[in-house]
């Protein structure tokens, strides 16, 4: 059985929501070490009365979901599955702040109601009047990958035709402040063209939402198949992950040579990029390598943006200049491998094949 | 389905017992758990009873073998997961491909609340060790790491149905041969965040809750953790006493409102119907339903009407064990899965406490006394939540 990507939708720091294409102009606006999404006009997808009450993660999640359904030509999917590590941080922060400042008195329910991690998936179901399977994974750097695996397992059961799934996380002032105190972000000013060549620790904080409609049949707008997925939790060494990659490719009856583009999750953190450097230089020497986190920033579900970039490469047959990190692209791009890790503890491999 | 998934054991810690046998004793003695809060610090202490695990964090940490400064949610999780594993007789965890699929709703919020009070005064203050495990996934990993589980670790959060969804995903991992054994369920400690949140919704009862009673006024919040051990059929022989099979499950969305259930309980109905379809059972073959039964007007009415639509005129015995344990949120699906699976093995029917008057909306009443040795071959366990998330599980005799 093949799993086709029938539609994609993405809200990111780039203008990815406009045409559904990889944007021609790329100039992500770094605000110090912080990269915010470029908000599309959400009125296209959401009633204006609802927009006012919604936090950004709900808006971007719903927009990405609707874009992907539109591209797939699907009105009601047979399942809705999201991955979000942090969930609805903004509403959580609002309720927590009021609870503390008001000594637990005179609180209102809206921010509490919208703080639960399944809010985005629930809102999508509500807007689509969709009674189908609905699930939300909240596991750090595996949130998106778990949602993807759940989707694959359900499609394999043969009863579902289209699954809407995606990864999303929002960055708030509180979360940026707090995570900064863990020395996670760059202290010095940096641009998106410099980030991936940085030799200092720390990365750029990001956010976004990327959704996909997966199905077992090739749709009108299917350009890629989701061929494989695997994860590795806390691998002991770079050698272990290299062995995992070779084994993963072997399961799919290919070798490194067959990979036309390797997309890695380089984030400019000199300590974390060691993993990618090892894999790029020992397993894929001289081959084309693409990157994406200089465009979306680092966040636990950033691999969903990486998969979106992989889909765009396969649909256009080209690697955007800003994505290409090293090597020379082949004339025909058929197989894309996405290798991402989050904080060195959550490693994932996603294999896409053009169709 | 290609491969059957067995329940090889289970463990629970909650306000009516530190372990599963203690919980069963509480049912037997009709000893409900709602009481004045002792361990949670809140302005609402005198107003709302809660169902707390009767131990402070230092005591729980000693039992869990984990540091006392980490989230209570992780401590509860570790204790119940360990009991679940030990009950299987499988021996060393490292000898198997094991997954840990745990649910929770607010992660390390109990510690974040402490951090945030300092942080709001000055963004550079507050101890980072209190917020480092804020994420739901952190709680799962603290426990997975301490148990030595690496093959597959993930976290589900679908509000009050989270724990049930962990069992579904775990069963799929086994059917897809990703792992051989999965510890699946959920955990949640009481927090001021959730207590105040439910208070804004005006669905907390100031007395011990009365699920499926016409005079019900709301729910009591509880805390705890509950896990079953899912085992693939080829490993069944190694289990001390296999409890039963997980024969069916389904998840549906009510798609009605972010927090309220539709009056007719469409999501509840679809989840129960889907679970029956997967198990290949007819409604009249279900011997007991462990209700979601929170004790709110809305839930019990929707759930009751959905049961009527699906089961009339053959109503099986039903009860809400939340009348004892309180609503343990992300843990409830896990805790009630353990009770439901054990009911199949032991022929238990659990009582619904505080029941007096039948609900006007439905023609059936819950079981009010504990009994054992009943013919209980198939048990349905319901879990419904915010976001319209509805899940049903069916446990069947092997």
UniProtKB/TrEMBL annotation, chain A:
Q: Name one Pfam family in it.
A: Ketoacyl-synt_2
Among the GO biological process terms of this entry, one is: fatty acid biosynthetic process
The Beta-ketoacyl synthase-like N-terminal domain extends over 45-173
Task: Please provide the record's keywords in A-Z order.
Answer: Transferase
Return the InterPro entries for the record.
Beta-ketoacyl_synthase, Ketoacyl_synth_N, Thiolase-like
Q: Does the keyword Ubl conjugation apply?
A: no
Query: GO terms for molecular function, please?
Result: 3-oxoacyl-[acyl-carrier-protein] synthase activity
Keyword hit for Cell inner membrane? no
Name of this chain's protein: Beta-ketoacyl synthase
Provide the species name. Answer: Chitinophaga oryziterrae
The organism's taxonomy opens as:
Bacteria, Pseudomonadati, Bacteroidota, Chitinophagia, Chitinophagales
TrEMBL record, chain B:
Q: Where is the Ketosynthase family 3 (KS3) domain?
A: 1-397
SMART domains according to UniProt:
PKS_KS
Heme keyword on record: no
Q: Which UniProt keywords apply?
A: Transferase
- Carries keyword Transferase? yes
This protein's source sits in the domain of life called Bacteria
Any one Pfam family here would be Ketoacyl-synt_C
PROSITE patterns assigned to the protein according to its UniProt record, in alphabetical order:
KS3_2
Q: Which SUPFAM superfamilies match?
A: Thiolase-like (SSF53901)
Q: GO CC terms for this protein? A: cytosol
Q: Name one GO biological process term.
A: fatty acid biosynthetic process
Molecular function GO terms recorded = 3-oxoacyl-[acyl-carrier-protein] synthase activity
The portions of this protein that span the membrane are none
Family the entry assigns: Belongs to the thiolase-like superfamily. Beta-ketoacyl-ACP synthases family.
The family database entries (PANTHER family) matched by this protein are listed as: BETA-KETOACYL SYNTHASE, POLYKETIDE SYNTHASE-RELATED
Listed name of the protein: Beta-ketoacyl-[acyl-carrier-protein] synthase family protein
Species in which this protein is naturally found: Chitinophaga oryziterrae
């Amino acid at each position: 059985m093949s799993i086709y990507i029938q539609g994609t939708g993405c809200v990111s720091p780039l203008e990815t929501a406009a045409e559904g294409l990889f944007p021609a102009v790329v100039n992500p606006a770094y605000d110090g070490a912080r990269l915010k999404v470029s908000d599309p006009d959400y009125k296209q997808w959401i009633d204006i009365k609802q927009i006012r009450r919604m936090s950004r993660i709900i808006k971007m999640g719903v927009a990405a979901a609707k874009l992907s359904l539109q591209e797939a030509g699907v009105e009601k999917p047979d399942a809705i599955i999201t991955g979000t590590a942090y969930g609805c941080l903004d509403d959580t922060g609002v309720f927590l702040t009021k609870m503390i400042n008001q000594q637990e008195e005179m609180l209102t329910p809206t921010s509490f109601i919208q703080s639960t991690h399944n809010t985005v998936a629930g809102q999508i179901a509500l807007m689509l009047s969709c009674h189908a399977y609905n699930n939300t994974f909240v596991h750090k750097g595996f949130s998106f990958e778990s949602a993807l695996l759940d989707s694959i397992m359900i499609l394999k059961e043969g009863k579902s035709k289209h699954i809407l799934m995606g990864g999303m996380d929002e960055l708030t002032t509180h979360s940026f402040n707090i995570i900064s105190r863990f020395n996670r972000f760059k202290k010095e000013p940096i641009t998106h063209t410099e980030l991936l060549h940085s030799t200092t620790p720390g990365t750029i904080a990001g956010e976004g939402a990327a959704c996909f409609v997966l199905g077992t049949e090739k749709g009108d707008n299917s350009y890629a198949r989701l061929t494989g997925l695997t994860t590795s939790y806390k691998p002991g060494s770079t050698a272990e992950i290299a062995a995992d990659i070779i084994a993963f490719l072997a399961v799919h009856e290919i070798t490194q040579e067959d990979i036309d583009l390797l997309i890695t999750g380089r984030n400019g953190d000199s300590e974390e990029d060691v993993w990618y450097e090892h894999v790029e230089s020992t397993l894929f020497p001289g081959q084309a390598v693409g990157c994406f986190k200089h465009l979306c920033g680092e966040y636990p579900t950033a691999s969903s943006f990486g998969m979106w970039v992989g889909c765009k490469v396969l649909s256009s047959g080209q690697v955007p200049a800003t994505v290409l990190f090293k090597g020379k692209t082949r004339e025909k791009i058929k197989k894309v491998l996405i290798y991402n890790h989050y904080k060195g503890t959550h490693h994932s491999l996603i294999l896409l094949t053009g169709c | 389905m290609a491969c059957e998934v067995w329940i090889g054991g289970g463990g629970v810690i909650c306000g009516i017992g530190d372990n599963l046998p203690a919980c069963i004793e509480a049912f037997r003695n009709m000893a409900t758990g709602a009481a004045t809060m002792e361990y949670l610090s809140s302005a609402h202490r005198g107003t709302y009873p809660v169902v707390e695990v009767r131990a402070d964090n230092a005591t729980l940490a000693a039992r869990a073998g984990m540091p006392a400064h980490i989230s209570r949610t992780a401590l509860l999780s570790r204790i119940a997961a360990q009991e679940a594993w030990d009950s299987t007789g499988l021996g060393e965890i490292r000898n198997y491909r094991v997954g840990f699929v745990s649910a929770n709703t607010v992660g390390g919020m109990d510690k974040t609340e402490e951090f945030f009070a300092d942080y709001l005064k000055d963004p550079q203050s507050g101890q980072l060790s209190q917020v480092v495990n804020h994420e739901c996934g952190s709680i799962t990993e603290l426990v997975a790491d301490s148990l030595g589980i690496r093959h597959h670790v993930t976290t589900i959060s679908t509000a009050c149905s989270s724990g049930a969804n962990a069992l579904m995903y775990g069963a799929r991992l086994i059917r897809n041969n990703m792992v051989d054994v999965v510890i699946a369920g959920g955990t949640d400690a009481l927090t001021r965040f959730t207590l105040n949140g439910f208070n804004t919704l005006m669905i907390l009862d100031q007395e011990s809750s009365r699920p499926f009673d016409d005079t019900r006024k709301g729910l009591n919040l509880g805390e705890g953790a509950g896990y079953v051990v899912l085992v693939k059929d080829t490993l069944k022989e190694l289990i001390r006493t296999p409890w039963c099979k997980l024969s069916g499950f389904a998840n549906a969305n009510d798609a009605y409102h972010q927090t309220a259930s539709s009056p007719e309980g469409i999501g509840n109905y679809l989840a129960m119907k889907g679970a029956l379809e997967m198990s290949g059972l007819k409604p009249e073959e279900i011997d007991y339903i462990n209700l979601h039964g929170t004790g709110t007007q809305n839930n019990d009415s929707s759930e009751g009407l959905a049961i009527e639509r699906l089961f009339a005129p053959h109503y099986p015995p039903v009860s809400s064990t939340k009348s004892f344990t309180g609503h343990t949120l992300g843990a409830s699906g896990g805790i009630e899965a353990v009770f439901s699976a054990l009911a199949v093995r032991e022929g238990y029917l659990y009582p619904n406490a505080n029941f007096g008057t039948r609900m006007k909306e439905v023609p059936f009443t819950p079981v009010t006394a504990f009994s054992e040795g009943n013919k209980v071959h198939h048990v349905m366990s319901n879990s419904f939540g915010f976001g319209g998330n509805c899940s049903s599980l069916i446990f069947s005799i092997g």
